[in-house]
Write a structure and sequence with these properties.
InterPro entries: Class_I_gatase-like (IPR029062), DJ-1/PfpI (IPR002818), Homeodomain-like_sf (IPR009057), HTH_AraC (IPR018060), INH-QAR (IPR052158). The protein is an alpha/beta fold. It contains 14 helices and eleven strands. The longest helix has 19 residues.
């Protein structure tokens, strides 16, 4: 009869439908591929809820699950979708979910579904991703988790977490590649008109993730940097603006903002250049000068370091 791999998707009220429908379509397309047929390999997708009752998605759709979570006996892969925000999952569902993931060969989540996995304790001391807007909150609630806010899909052992609703497709494609090879994954991605993997990860969506300083003098420096990214923003100039020595300024800025002044300036300049790349029909050389990089080569290095994507690729994707 060949190999059957069961993919279980626990659902709850408020679940984001794309987080489970996207991966389901990927597995369906994989089942239809010649390679899967030749290998007699088939995904069986099961949706479940705590008691098997219907759930209402965040978009207002009502979904009738295949079964209750406790009724699942064969668990190949668990995919826990997220919600539009941080999901509210009751203690009983969390307990059932914890029992489910302990039996699974692979455990995954999509977007803020990572918060649900975190409640089971399975992510402790592991790297994990969630939607970039909620990365800081995940780290605050679960300090034992090494939160990666940059990558779209993060794998740590048998656990894989994906950054946002649409990244569930990326996640499913990576699982298909693991099971059936890159050729099948590429065939599926072409049939769904998507990338096997997208350049840039999540970092490209989070322009500037930094705290506001507690000190009024440092907040004034931050405002200066954001208002005039193309200006003279050397350590000497910034510390002078704050009325501090360079050594004192460097220490206070890092402790209050969470990064060095140089890193902050670079991220502000990348954010400024990224907006100009998508909003203005100007050459990269002009944008690099206006954003404070000086040269296109310097801008490219900063984009690759901060966003993991080149300026031209950024313009191509977001213009």
């Amino acid at each position: 009869m060949g190999r059957r791999h069961t993919v279980v998707m626990p659902l709850f009220d408020g679940v984001q439908s794309l987080g489970f429908s996207g991966p389901a379509d990927v597995f369906s397309a994989a089942n239809a591929s010649d390679r899967a047929t030749a290998d007699r390999f088939r995904y069986e997708v099961l949706t479940s809820s705590l008691d098997g009752a219907p759930v209402r998605t965040s978009s207002g759709l009502t979904v009738m699950p295949d079964c209750a979570i406790a009724d699942v006996t064969d668990v190949g892969t668990v995919i826990l979708p997220g919600a539009d925000g941080i999901p509210v999952i009751d203690r009983e569902t969390t307990g059932a979910l914890g029992a489910l993931v302990k039996c699974a060969q692979r455990v995954t989540s999509v977007g803020t579904g990572t918060f649900g996995l975190a409640e089971t304790g399975i992510l402790d001391s592991r790297r994990a991703a969630t939607h970039w807007e909620f990365s800081d909150e995940l780290a605050r609630r679960h300090p034992d988790i090494h939160v990666d806010s940059r990558d779209t899909v993060v794998r740590d052992g048998h656990i894989t977490t994906a950054g946002g609703g649409a990244s569930g497709i990326d996640l499913a494609l990576s699982l298909v590649e693991e099971d059936l090879g890159r050729e099948v994954s590429q065939l599926v991605s072409r049939s769904l008109v998507t990338y096997v993997s997208k350049p840039g990860g999540q970092a490209q969506f989070a322009e500037l993730r930094a705290r506001d300083a507690q000190s009024p003098a440092l907040r004034d420096v931050q405002h200066l940097i954001r208002s005039h990214p193309g200006g003279e923003l050397s350590l000497r100039a910034l510390s002078g603006h704050a009325g501090l020595s360079q050594r004192q300024f460097t220490r206070l800025f890092r402790s209050q903002v969470g990064m060095s002044a140089r890193e902050y300036v670079e991220r502000v300049r990348v954010a400024s250049a990224s907006r100009m790349l998508t909003e203005r029909v100007r050459s990269p050389e002009e944008i690099a000068r206006e954003a404070g990089f000086g040269t296109e080569a310097t801008m490219r290095k900063s984009f690759l370091r901060v966003l993991q994507v080149s300026p031209l690729e950024y313009r191509k994707r977001f213009s």
